[in-house]
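Hey all, quick one. A colleague (J.T.) asked me to put the glycine job into the tracker so the inputs and the structure tokens live in one place instead of scattered across chat threads. No bug as far as I know, just bookkeeping. Sequence used:
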Amino acid sequence: MQTLSVDLGDRSYPIYIGEGLLSQPELLLNHIAGGQVLVVTNDTVAPLYLEIIRESLSDLDYSELILPDGEQHKSLEVLSAIYDKLLQDKHNRTTTLVALGGGVIGDMTGYAAASYQRGVNFIQIPTTLLSQVDSSVGGKTGVNHPLGKNMIGAFHQPQCVIADTQTLTTLPQRELSAGIAEVIKYGLICDAEFYQWLEQHIEDLLACDQTKLAEAIYRSCDNKAKVVASDEREAGVRAILNLGHTFGHAIETAQGYGNWLHGEAVAAGMLLAARLSEKMQWIGAADVESVRSMLLRAKLPVAPPAMTCEQFLSIMAVDKKVLDGRLRLVLLKQMGEAIITSDIAEQDLRDILVEAGVAP
Ligand code: NAD
Ligand code: GLY
């Protein structure tokens, strides 16, 4: 097992990464302060991993809640079922919520923990690659609104993150690829050496090689933990973690939540961001081709779906990074270095969208 720390003063917490961690109940129990616990999961993950968690927590005042699976259920309505369960089972302020699942369960359970009785403890047990390398770390929690992705939420850090690589053996190939998109992101935004490592090992990740996955998760979380420690609430540099996400959120919102996976939309978005970075003359055509080839090797989409420029621009205008009415995007100053800029000509944006097949 490898352990990393997210350094946030008295809210610092460990990330445990390794194979078979769900079989080590003390990892979980050491971070539960009170006597009550509610495990939140979904109807896909529950048959796979709930029993082992239930056994680990059998000496506590234990509740569990199994939600419907899917991004379309990351809603205020489904969130409300978590509050219902907490109140029905008389959970008090010292309760701990345990999120067992992917990013949807993690984000929703985290937000329930942030808001129930003005904030209770929670633990992340991410079971998708995407959630192990990204969503379980850093304390962003929330739900979608029909008009915008992740628009209702809060910053609320977990007590710990337990990333068991063995859970990834049951993950569908498409979901594994979606997680690899976020792994590639770290190489592009802040770790050129890791990007080169990925060029060597991307197929090992697709083949679910446990050692290589653990290394990729460690390096991704290490990069993320450093960014989060320096800018927890995204006043500045944390926004680089959103490379490709502004385009990606537009794709997810326009296509209907759940049709394009988050990581797939981010992949197509990262290539659009790379193309715009080339327009700015920060990176070259060979760099754009390298990103495209890496995404293709990871079995990720490299072209946006059938959408119009107006759809992209209108959804991107309500992005959380919009400041004083001006769109801000994360682009690549060079391979391995991201910058956040609002200095974007609308015509350049339209040009790269049209060049990528978006209707004018
Ligand atoms: P997900 O939670 O929908 O999980 C993907 C699918 O895999 C689901 O069907 C799930 O039930 C299934 N699954 C989970 N673990 C499994 C396992 N071990 N074996 C088999 N199936 C399993 O999607 P995701 O990609 O994990 O997360 C995407 C969500 O994360 C989005 O809502 C996105 O907005 C959010 N996100 C949040 C942050 C953040 O910082 N909070 C960062 C990135 C993404
Ligand atoms: N996934 C972006 C962030 O955590 O800030």
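Adding what we noticed when we looked at it: Residues 6 and 164 are 18 Å apart (CA to CA). The pocket of nicotinamide-adenine-dinucleotide (ligand 1) is lined by residues 42, 44-45, 48, 69, 71, 74, 101-105, 107, 127-128, 130-131, 134-135, 138, 140, 150, 167, 170-171, 175, 178, 262-263 (CB under 6 Å).
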